[in-house]
Amino acid sequence: MSKTIAVIPGDGIGPEIMTATLRVLDALDCGLSYDFVDAGMVALEKHGDLLPKATLDKIAEHRVALKGPLTTPIGDGFTSVNVTLRRHFDLYANVRPALSFPGTKSRYENIDIITVRENTEGAYRSEGQTLSADGEIAESVARNTRKGSTRIVRYAFELAVKKGRKKVTAVHKANILKTSSGLFLNVAREIAKEYPQIEFNEMIVDNTCMQLVMKPEQFDVIVTTNLFGDILSDLCAGLVGGLGLAPGDNIGEHAAIFEAVHGSAPDIAGKGIANPCALLLAAADMLDYLDMVAKGDQLRQAIRDTMTNDRDSVTPDLGGKGSTSSFADAIVKRLAA
Ligand code: NAI
Ligand code: MG
């Protein structure tokens, strides 16, 4: 199969981990070609625009993008490029797998949780945020719609079916947030009936936090609204050893953007020690999305084998003495073996 994807190397450690990731993808021999486009600080410097129209056009054309982290400049007048991309392409499903790998600092060994977070509404709508003229009253209005709740819950169940998962947990706070969270929960209950083969349960978000820390093995697929999903998915990343291993997939009807959950890490940029795994795992999810599931699994297994057997080659955040490129070299070697 031959397929062209848009590639955004990104800022900070972005180009370093993207180079490593593309090298591994090439070694996997999955027939991908890359159309490189700019966004973030690189684009601002080159084109005077954080998110040039040409970049949006290329993503629209190829429908699939692999994206490095982007720095959002601090200060007025700059909206996050990430938020803009999610909105522009209506990438309503933010899928964040948390999977245990050997040799991390995690307390757990058998975590395999996918958080499916609603990515476009809830408490994160910029229109819903106001501050009174005297600066005394701040208001933030969460809005969940039946349409938005329906498509995210359906996405979670369809994902569960496709990946052979057993259980979907809807996380909510409908006992207090009776309307916004209540609507989401009602929709989840309705849709769950259409999937009798998947176990469905519901859990209040504060209890979910405790349960995730005490007994994470009970979770399989979690579906939730924007704010809760943001927080819970970072918690889940912490359960498996941190952001260096956390991919984030942004999926819509017409386009999908795969990225690492972490940012541009300016503190280690240019040092060659960034862990490429989060972006590599995002690339594995992208291969699943492109119906190359065997290749995606092969990549995850090669990462797992490298982390088990080539401890010296892994990056310092995982306790190794290696670099971004030695890590990638070791994975490429595993793929060739
Ligand atoms: P960050 O995720 O960039 O860094 C947090 C800490 O984790 C740092 O100590 C960093 O060195 C470490 N870290 C992150 N990724 C790593 C990797 N692959 N290997 C080893 N260590 C790693 O978060 P921070 O510092 O809050 O944000 C920096 C910039 O990134 C900001 O401009 C922010 O807006 C942007 N950002 C972009 C995101 C995106 O493009 N999706 C997501 C989050 C932040
Ligand atoms: Mg977050």
From TrEMBL:
GO MF term list: isocitrate dehydrogenase (NAD+) activity; magnesium ion binding; NAD binding
Family to which this protein belongs: Belongs to the isocitrate and isopropylmalate dehydrogenases family.
InterPro entries xrefs: IsoCit/isopropylmalate_DH_CS, IsoPropMal-DH-like_dom
Name the record gives this protein: Isocitrate dehydrogenase
PROSITE patterns in alphabetical order: IDH_IMDH (PS00470)
Isopropylmalate dehydrogenase-like domain span: 4-331
Domain of life, per lineage: Bacteria
Organism this protein belongs to: Rhodanobacter glycinis
Top EC class of this enzyme: oxidoreductase
Single GO biological process annotation from the record: isocitrate metabolic process
Pfam families from the UniProt entry: Iso_dh
